[in-house]
Amino acid sequence: MTVATTRDRIVEAADALFYQRGFEKTSFAGIADAVGLSRGNFYYHFKTKDEILDAVIALRAARTQAMLDEWTALAPTPLDRLRCFAEMLIHNREAIQHHGCPVGTLCAELAKSAHPASGNAAMIFGQFRDWLREQFEALGHAGDADALAMHLLSRSQGIAALANAFHDEAFIRHEVERIDAWLASLAPKPTATRARRAKNTHS
Amino acid sequence: MTVATTRDRIVEAADALFYQRGFEKTSFAGIADAVGLSRGNFYYHFKTKDEILDAVIALRAARTQAMLDEWTALAPTPLDRLRCFAEMLIHNREAIQHHGCPVGTLCAELAKSAHPASGNAAMIFGQFRDWLREQFEALGHAGDADALAMHLLSRSQGIAALANAFHDEAFIRHEVERIDAWLASLAPKPTATRARRAKNTHS
Fold first, then answer.
1. C-alpha angle A195/A198/A199, rounded to 5°?
2. What pTM, to 2 d.p., does this model score?
3. B86-100 pLDDT, tens per residue?
4. Are B119 and B183 in contact (CB under 8 A)?
5. CATH code of the domain occupying B1-47
6. B49-189, superfamily in CATH?
7. Which residue is closest to A95 within chain B, CA to CA?
8. A157 CB within 8 Å of a chain B CB
């Protein structure tokens, strides 16, 4: 096992514990135990919990970017890409019901303690916001793309918060359907000319 | 100063600290310091932080009910009452930008630690949900009143989460306008007969 791999294992374990238990509630010793490392080996990699937090935020930012890049590559249209974002709530429904949204809950916790990493954690919201804005621009809503991006992001946050409080999977599915309908209403409609032409072709 | 008043002051101080710093981050000693009490006097009222948490949740539940009763009494129509709920985000915009929603952030924190009081904290969401459902029923949406209540509650949660992450007051105002427009679209329309009658009256 290389030094890099041990560090990665620490960050992976901390990522999971911060999500499942919260940052404040997770101890330095708890992370070391989860990875099965001696204190000496652990301190070689990280001196403070704040250093681990920085590494966890960097890991989450990298994973977020990889996910957004994948959606961009695999979904053919802006509408499909926006739906990938909404579908994320369904894919992650089990974890969300147990622990909420990893980004939202970490941001909320760090904001309360006015933690120096608070702004970095919020930058992951910024990654989603920028990507969503691009999709709304491509969908033909350049004028209010940022407002639409913030609206969709906030709806996803609200769904995660209530699904977590009520442990309600049907609620998640119902709200994602509602988002899909809203997104469809924003998609460009065939023009009257195109519609006529289509009709003529069929007749 | 009576015994009851000292207890109330402890609960008030804990309520503020749990909101501003988080439950886990707030120590027993920190609450005693905020109230300016000796340990002996403090322990007379509360033996554990969990006992204080129960009292804080009871206080918040009582205040929530008083606020809902006030909205019911003062706002003349179901639409006005639903708007009172949305306006709450604007009234509390400073605190929300700094600390998020008090209900949502406490629920999220307690859910992560699987705290026994987690369900009680979520019951405050339940108070809002029940009251919102009644308003949507009165607005003529008996069939999907609960889904509409959950939708509005989740939108308010999402707005609080992002306003907290981005410290963005304009975003709060923009989203509340969007909610107002959505609520207006759900309000009963004058029927065609009524509209014709109104026209005849004016002509």
1. 85
2. 0.91
3. 999 999 999 999 999
4. no
5. 1.10.10.60
6. Tetracycline Repressor, domain 2 (1.10.357.10)
7. B112
8. yes
